[in-house]
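ugh ok so i messed up the first submission bc i forgot one of the chains. this is the corrected input, ALL of the components this time, i swear. 1073 residues overall. if the numbers dont match what u have on ur side tell me asap before i send this to the collaborators (the ones from the other lab, u know who)
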Amino acid sequence: MGNLIILDMCMCPCSQCHSHDAAQLGRKVAVVDYVEPSPRGTRWGLGGTCVNVGCIPKKLMHQAALLGGLIRDAPHYGWEVAQPVLHDWRKMAEAVQNHVKSLNWGHRVQLHDRKVKYFNVKAGFVDEHTVRGVAKGGKEILLSADHIVIATGGRPRYPAHIEGALEYGITSDDIFWLKESPGKTLVVGASYVALECAGFLTGIGLDTTVMMRSIPLRGFDQQMSSLVTEHMASHGTRFLRGCTPSQVRRLPDGQLQVTWEDRTTGKEGTGTFNTVLWAVGRAPDTRSLNLEKAGVDTSPNTQKILVDSREATSVPHIYAIGDVVEGRPELTPTAVMAGRLLAQRLFGGSSDLMDYDKVPTTVFTPLEYGCVGLSEEEAVSRHGQERVEVYHAHYKPLEFTVPGRDASQCYVKMVCLREPPQLVLGLHFLGPNAGEVTQGFALGIKCGASYVQVMQTVGIHPTCSEEIVKLRISKRSGLDPTVTGC
Amino acid sequence: RRRRLLGLIERSRVVIFSKSYCPHSTRVKELFSSLGAECYVLELDQVDDGAKIQEVLLEITNQKTVPNIFVNKVHVGGCDQTFQAYQSGLLQKLLQEDSAYDYDLIVIGGGSGGLSCAKEAAILGKKVMVLDFVVPSPQGTSWGLGGTCVNVGCIPKKLMHQAALLGQALHDSGKFGWEYNQQVKHNWETMTKAIQNHIRSLNFGYGLSLREKAVAYVNSYGEFVEHHKIKATNKKGQETYYTAAQFVIATGERPRYLGIQGDKEYCITSDDLFSLPYCPGKTLVVGASYVALECAGFLAGFGLDVTVMVRSILLRGFDQEMAEKVGSYMEQHGVKFLWKFIPVMVQQLEKGSPGKLKVLAKSTEGTETIEGVYNTVLLAIGRDSCTRKIGLEKIGVKINEKSGKIPVNDVEQTNVPYVYAVGDILEGKPELTPVAIQSGKLLARRLFGASLEKCDYINVPTTVFTPLEYGCCGLSEEKAIEVYKKENLEIYHTLFWPLEWTVAGRENNTCYAKIICNKFDHDRVLGFHILGPNAGEVTQGFAAAMKCGLTKQLLDDTIGIHPTCGEVFTTLEITKSSGLDITQKGC
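and heres the new structure output, hopefully the right one now
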């Protein structure tokens, strides 16, 4: 019997680090990983969502779109770029896919180096200590271990009851692996995945429409979210708000005709697209695991696995981490850290628990949105309007001045307790390089930074992040938060 | 109590904080009575909260001892300072002139520090004047309101840096699927015009904001002529005199020249470069300061042939490991370095825009000399404080004779009590715009009673905008070893490969992150260093975290934002002392 089996339908980096750490702690570890092809037939290698169909290809395509903006800036800075400037999807996709493949290989080598046994089989529980794996050819193996970790992640959902959705639509599992340009695209959904995809598609010059039922970026600060979509709309992304699709048909010329209902007017609308991308949420991959045989409980609504603060499921020696777990932020670094801490608790004698509060994140929409801590709504609902002070500023990145870029949506706000020393509850930053800007402040907020301490920090000039240490105008004051001069 | 004290100082002509048994206090009291001045005397040994008052005085004046004397709101000091002021005539002047001054505050110099101080004082209801005058450079360049940062510093520098980064972005874009005619050229005139237009809009904005706040702005050269009195000379040579209760010197610095044959005639400095009406062509940059490396970096980024002549080391005062990496990246990207040489003569071979110059240089180590021909020679060997021609000797403000810098106490006060200084001219303080802005603003608030907060010069972050940016906060490795000893430190470091660089095919194992921790203080982070894209944006937040006492444990406990460069600091594992390999193989 081994010490640990890691179940990994689409192996996420979480289990990677986890398995490395466990193996480094001298344990016998096996990783079981299998990628069920998407309904469109897309499949990929080791490394999970993040590497193959998530953060990595997403950020690279976002970068491609940003470069398009920089090419437009360049003439203002003296670079003589001859028109026309065109974008070749195939060239970009191939470069991105080659990078991802090199990462797959790297992961494989690392597992081998750290003496982790790797099985490319589809797994399900037999009993609470045993897992049956079925390989592509149908060959079966049985594995047993003291501890089992479930890290099977989630996969994009298709909407039920919409005719043609599954036949003709694609998801984020497919978009990054398309060989040909998706062309005119309808993105259905308002999650960060939806907005990020729509953002880079628009950025590389494709006609892109986002159809959203209600609000963008549910769970994020709503003022920031509406600035994000406002920016996208002013940069060419079309929005169909308050609409839900009802049917997708393939026309004789191969185009897809989408019919939708406008829920405010009750009217029906139609449009034709080359591609329909569903980004309506993700579902955990737990059904095929036969969890009931091991006695692992899941949430009846979401099918996600229920765990305690030590990541243990209803069966004490079976654990779950990452996107498959109920109520956890679906973020790669969160999963990585949860996995690492779990390995250290299991075999390293540590007792450190994962802190799921104050997890920083960034949405890589064309104008990036970075945040950490509470949204303004959440702060107000927890502490009451009277006890919350929000400092904010509309600023203009220096780099925007020369090319005359519109900075209407470049905005930063810090949500604090009103009572001195004004503990920082949340930070929200909308602007270029938001991820880089947010990371360090996330630390400060974790240390329990107060507004006063942040204000005592000297700025780095000229950067966008210095706007955060110069926040002086509170929302309550009603003063104009536009930054002038430097 | 604090407010009561400030109110007392504000209202009274003379306040003496004294102790009834103190002989020095008695001497001072006698002095004032001999001058016929009415004094408010507070005997701290005879009031209940004397000790607490003394604490507050320490905060306000940085002086704990008695007697502690204020005359017309100006903190004169203790017994000795009061007698010195009496001997120099300052005390009599302070006593004489009450509201007779034209202004509450005159600020000399309209740069970042001076303007922030003036505006803040005006917000607090004071009558304020700003004198700003740009003496044209030897090449005849001059500019508008706002000082170095806006006109010939941070702003144009970062914009030219951005222009160079765009060149790199154009290069990368092909790999990301963008297609266009690859014959891309850079046009210096287009860029410079756009940047100068932006600067002019900033100049205009500064003028406007001074007017809005009712600060009197005079475009004249200010020079002290006697205590509390200044002479302002405008472009036409007309002289006007103004008086004020208090003064702030914020005159800043200007680039230094070599003092060799041909330097002022033919060389340019950063004062000239950003508004140069023609492309500088093949350029020799003399110096290894951050100004030198930043300028060399963006010029090379435009495709120009650039050589940097270095006397000894790069980026003196910065972490030397980082400085070396900055240099070697530049070297790999086309900048040539001439090590251990100094120019001895510059000759003009041809006039023109640009012309042709011959530079003769000699080795710092031997007798070797070399000759080179360049279109432009840019001097970036340091900056001199503008403190020697503003009449400071007339009122007895001390400067460091060697550096020209002004020593101040921790409330930015010079040895002459009513004269303060902010910005690059301060001795031993960082020469950075945000520092000047902060200290100027806090100074005004302290002077006019709104707060007691002092400017904190510790853990000031900064970024060098070389082609590969270098951001840092806290101590360099050398300084940390000097202060804490090597065995008490743990240094964590790693090389990293920004995701955007992978597909672009840019080199791995070039970007570098390093933190220096104090082993015996919970691995508290003493120094933070990053070499990589967007280093400025990355460093700012970490600087805020260092203000809150950042430790290695906290870095480990913080979740990274994926995929960014900043996240490398949350997964640092390898210590320098372990000697383990930090090169990255895959992602």
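quick check: DSSP finds 15 helices and 24 strands in chain A. that seems consistent at least. The mean pLDDT of chain A is 90.
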